[in-house]
């Protein structure tokens, strides 16, 4: 599989994680000069070897961030033989990320039926074009959904939203309605149990950085978010940081490794006549 790349000041950053403990932000297109939303995820995970691959989905082709060993690791597959995808962009301009949460699960669904967030994101990338499509997907997935997460979504029509999702229901937060013009998320929710919140220190650090910066929000871009959030040190940049990714307008930026150690790259959906499938259908 070959994906066209160009080294540039635009990024997708992958950072090492021992647990799913991510820091993320969506910025509304209403406060950006080009009118297009921006979405950023700083990923912490137990699998530090991440890569970006191209997939031909049921309806749309897409780029997805996956664990490099997904073909040989049966835990990372479902019966369709597709991988868990931890963020991505499809050819319709639909982009999705997630952060794990620990305060939403309110049932006795066993662990063996959980942790399906990566499979839900694969499905979303292959069939969704807008936030409305994603909401229809959430409504029609079989219950229990096997998830406990925040899902961030932006689309080519300017949609930008966070979804707090558990096995049976979901709550939406429209970033276009945020007075600040953006919304930071880590590993807890607004609709979940306060006593089980995780990642509060990283949430507070990211919010403080954005609230105190002298850079106007209209100038917040991939470079600003990497330099000011990913590279801000503890508690955000850690030994378990595996990656970071930014969807900015029509562009996808990545650093497949810690952003303080690996050069940035820009990733493109290949032309159909030139592409080869990285996996999936």
Q: TL;DR?
A:
The chain is of the alpha+beta class.
What does this structure look like?
It is a single chain. The chain has one domain (about 5-265): Penicillin V Acylase, Chain A (4-Layer Sandwich). About 15% of the residues lie in helices and about 25% in strands. The chain has 4 helices and 15 strands. Strands 1, 2, 3, 4, 12, 13, 14 and 15 form an 8-stranded antiparallel beta sheet that branches. The protein has a 7-stranded antiparallel beta sheet with strand order 5-6-7-8-9-10-11, covered by helices on one side. The chain starts with a strand and ends in a 14-residue tail after the last strand. Residues about 1-20 and about 270-280 have low confidence and may be disordered.
Indicate the topology.
Layout (H helix, E strand, L loop, with lengths): L4 E2 L7 E2 L7 E5 L10 E7 L5 E7 L4 E7 L19 E4 L4 E6 L16 H11 L3 H10 L8 E6 L5 E6 L4 E5 L7 E4 L14 H13 L9 H9 L10 E8 L2 E5 L9 E3 L14
Antiparallel strand pairs: 1-15, 2-13, 3-4, 3-12, 4-13, 5-6, 6-7, 7-8, 8-9, 9-10, 10-11, 13-14, 14-15
């Amino acid at each position: 599989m070959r994906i066209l790349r160009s080294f540039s000041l635009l990024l997708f950053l992958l950072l090492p994680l021992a647990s799913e403990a991510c820091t993320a932000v969506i910025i509304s297109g209403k406060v950006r000069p080009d009118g297009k939303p921006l979405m950023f995820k700083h990923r912490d995970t137990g699998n530090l070897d991440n890569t970006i691959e191209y997939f031909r989905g049921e309806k749309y082709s897409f780029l997805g961030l996956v664990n490099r060993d997904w073909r040989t690791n049966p835990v990372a597959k479902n019966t369709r033989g597709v991988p868990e995808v931890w963020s991505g962009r499809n050819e319709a301009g639909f982009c999705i990320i997630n952060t794990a949460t620990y305060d939403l699960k309110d049932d006795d669904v066993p662990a063996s039926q959980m942790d399906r967030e990566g499979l839900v994101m694969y499905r979303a990338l292959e069939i969704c074009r807008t936030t409305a499509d994603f909401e229809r997907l959430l409504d029609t997935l079989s219950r229990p959904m096997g998830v406990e997460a925040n899902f961030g979504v932006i689309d080519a029509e300017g949609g930008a939203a966070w979804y707090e999702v558990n096995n049976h229901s979901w709550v939406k937060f429209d970033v276009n309605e945020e007075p600040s013009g953006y919304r930071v998320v880590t590993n807890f929710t607004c609709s979940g149990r306060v006593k089980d919140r995780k990642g509060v220190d990283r949430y507070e650090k990211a919010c403080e950085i954005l609230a105190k910066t002298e850079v106007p929000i209209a100038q917040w871009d991939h470079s600003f978010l990497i330099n000011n959030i990913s590279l801000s040190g503890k508690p955000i940049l850690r030994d378990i940081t595996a990656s970071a990714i930014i969807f900015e307008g029509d562009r996808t930026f990545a650093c497949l490794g810690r952003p303080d150690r690996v050069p940035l790259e820009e990733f493109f959906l290949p032309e159909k006549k030139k592409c080869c499938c990285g996996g999936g259908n």
